Amino acid sequence: MWSRLLFLFALLYPSVAHADDGKFSLVPKNGVVKFDATCFDDNAMAKILTFSEFIAVELNSACSFEKDKMLLDHRLEVENLQIEKQGLEERYLIEIDTRDEEIETLRDIIKKNKKLNIPVVIATSVAIGFGVGFGTYHLASR
Q1: How many CB atoms lie within 10 A of CB 54?
Q2: What is the pLDDT of residue 3?
């Protein structure tokens, strides 16, 4: 129970940590300093000094990888669109050829059936047109 109260007290009243700017000095083996210090050996110091360079190289590699990946994805998408375009063009040409064949077939049928009397067809069309117009006029005027 006391540990819980102590824990709550620590949470409610946090202490603020203060620190100086920090000092760096090279201390020889078995040397004494006037302040608390953290010492690093040569390997640890080398890791600290080269860490930023290591991170820069690693991030540049990751960035290059992502860029290459995006370029490959884009190229793949472009190739897929070109394949789709080619398929649509082939389908369009097939439809145009089919339509042209149907038109030629219909022209041949018309040439064979020249038995139609053109003046009679025109006169009948005009008469039907006048009849429809006259009927519409009478229905509209009522």
Answers
A1: 10
A2: 60
Residue 115 is predicted with a pLDDT of 64
For residue 74, give both structure tokens.
């884009």
pTM of the model: 0.41
Q: Give the count of alpha carbons within 13 A of 44, CB side only.
A: 4
Which residues make Cβ contacts (< 8 Å) with residue 33, sequence separation at least 6?
Answer: 25, 27
Helices (H) and strands (E) in the chain, counts: 3, 0
**How many whole angstroms from its chain centre is CA 111?**
56
Q: What torsion do the CA atoms of 26, 30, 32, 37 make, to the nearest 10 degrees?
A: 60
Q: How confident is the model at residue 18 (pLDDT cuts 50, 70, 90)?
A: very low
pLDDT range class, residue 85, cuts 50, 70, 90: very high
Round to the nearest angstrom and report the end-to-end CA distance of the chain.
102
Question: In angstroms, what is the C-alpha Rg of the chain?
Answer: 46
DSSP string computed for 59-76: HHHHHHHHHHHHHHHHHH
135 neighbors 142 (Cβ within 8 angstroms)? no
